[in-house]
From TrEMBL:
<comment type="similarity">
    <text>Belongs to the bacterial solute-binding protein 3 family.</text>
</comment>
<dbReference type="InterPro" id="IPR001638">
    <property type="entry name" value="Solute-binding_3/MltF_N"/>
</dbReference>
<dbReference type="Pfam" id="PF00497">
    <property type="entry name" value="SBP_bac_3"/>
</dbReference>
<protein>
    <submittedName>
        <fullName>Amino acid ABC transporter substrate-binding protein</fullName>
    </submittedName>
</protein>
<feature type="domain" description="Solute-binding protein family 3/N-terminal">
    <location>
        <begin position="35"/>
        <end position="163"/>
    </location>
</feature>
<keyword id="KW-0732">Signal</keyword>
């Protein structure tokens, strides 16, 4: 190799190496959080209550491993407190973000989404409930969990067309349904399956299709996170695209739904009679 070619190679290396070092991002550790009471997406680890388990936790850890970044899923409270922690930048990533316009000036949403969350009407597992659209719920008595958030459009529709009562928990709402004291319960599909598995009533109810509404669940990076840079945003989007194409989020939801059910069975057996 001639001196001129050797010098050119050295100069190229000096230019490329620093840019590659910058390309891998400035953070070796990312902290994420989310609503801690939403299996199979996220829930508290019974062995270490300061950490979160669930499909979204596993998904983020898979992404982090492929990027060479350690990801920790930490408990920060309910959905509101989790949002506050991410908004402030004390936590980098919200692992279960709903894309709403007022959040766009606080965090960057990763596309594609993790999953589509479908709020469906659950009815007793018996014939006779005609249903083709959500308009067919009019004239029937329904219930929902008081902490549910449906969005302005559906709230307006419900005020005009539906008869709904709020319950403090999914357990209460489903007990009313099975007892015949209400006609349907509105609840997100996967969350309802997790809750009803512990109640052992899955054979007594069925969900109506199509959903009454749906929205997308995303990863979102705080604008105030010290780790939020173009490289991280680009890599998260790339990895999410690959994982969605491979059906990984759906696989993780299914496996963590079973994981949650088994955990509840174990907890029930361990409880004193």
């Amino acid at each position: 190799m001639g001196f001129g070619l050797l010098l050119k190679s050295v100069l190229v290396a000096l230019l490329v190496v620093p840019s590659l070092a910058f390309a891998v991002g400035k953070c070796e550790r990312l902290v994420a959080t989310g609503a801690a009471d939403n299996p199979p997406f996220l829930w508290r680890d019974p062995q270490n209550p300061q950490r979160l388990l669930g499909a979204n936790a596993e998904l983020l850890k898979q992404i982090g491993k492929s990027l060479g970044v350690k990801v920790e899923l930490l408990y920060s409270g309910d959905a509101s407190k989790a949002l506050d922690e991410v908004r402030s930048g004390r936590v980098d990533i919200l692992a279960d973000a709903r894309l709403v316009t007022q959040r766009l000036d606080e965090m960057d949403f990763v596309h594609p989404s993790i999953a589509s969350l479908q709020t469906v009407a659950w009815v007793r597992n018996e014939p006779g409930f005609f249903y083709a659209t959500r308009d067919d719920l009019a004239g029937h008595d329904g219930r929902f969990v008081s902490t549910s958030r449906f969005g302005r459009e559906f709230d307006a529709f419900a005020r005009q067309r539906l008869t709904l009562q709020a319950d403090a928990s999914l357990t209460q709402a489903m007990e009313q349904l099975v007892a015949g004291k209400t006609d349907y319960v509105l609840h997100e599909r996967y969350s309802a399956l997790a809750g009803m598995g512990a109640l052992a009533i899955l054979d007594k109810v069925q969900r109506l299709e199509p959903p009454v509404l749906s929205h997308e669940m995303h990863l979102a990076i705080s604008h105030n996170s010290a780790c939020n840079d173009a490289w991280l945003r680009g890599q998260l989007a790339l990895k999410m695209t690959e994982l969605r194409a491979a059906g990984v989020p759906e696989q993780l939801l299914a496996s963590n739904l079973e994981r949650w059910k088994l955990q509840q069975v174990g907890t029930a057996k361990a409880s004193p009679q």
